[in-house]
Amino acid sequence: MVDRRPDAALLNRAAGALVGSAVGSARGAGSAGEWIDLTATTLGHLGDPVGLAAATPGEAGVVMWLQAIRHTVLTGELDARIGLRGLQGNGRERWSTLLAQAEREPASSFDDGGVVHAIQAAWSAIMHTPVLPYDGERHLADTLEICAPLGATISAIAGALLGACHGVAAIPAEWAAQLPDADDLVRRARELAEASWAVDPDDELFNLPE
Predict the structure, then answer these.
(1) Is pTM beyond 0.90 here?
(2) Nearest to residue 153, comparing CAs of 71, 61, 49?
(3) What is the CATH number of the domain that holds 120?
(4) Which of 76, 118, 184, 208 has a Cα at 20 to 30 A from 91?
(5) Phi, psi dihedrals of residue 179, rounded to the nearest 5°
């Protein structure tokens, strides 16, 4: 019988997403509990992109970002644009334009406090953080240093996606140690990923809906 359990790398990325969101929130000197919860919801729907979209409230950009986190946990690929495939019609076109704007402008230019600009700021910071030669830990840390002055929400949004890409080991140990519940977050993330993966292990179900 084929072992269809998620491998250690996937579980590491799942933990990275949840801890990364919490660390980002803490680095932003505030509370972004909603985004930590949304990241957990994503981990609970790794095998169910349609269910994830249905469980995601509000702005289409939130759907896009969570679908991108989901894809990154499953594959290790860092690309917010993959989440566009989870949007329909005008939402997809609108967010393609908004991401392009974020790729052109610095994160500090998106500062009105709304969720649209928060997502744009997070993506801008990720895209505009130079790390040569490339190093995942530096990319995560340097990006969150850019996001922190912009607020907890932006830092949490960026931390979730970068943590999903680089895994929990890429999060600076001293930052994780400042979280009172870091071990619980790792445990919760792994449990959610294992249960979600088991919903239906067929590979074709891990593609984002058109």
Answers:
(1) yes
(2) 61
(3) 1.10.4080.10
(4) 76
(5) -85, 125
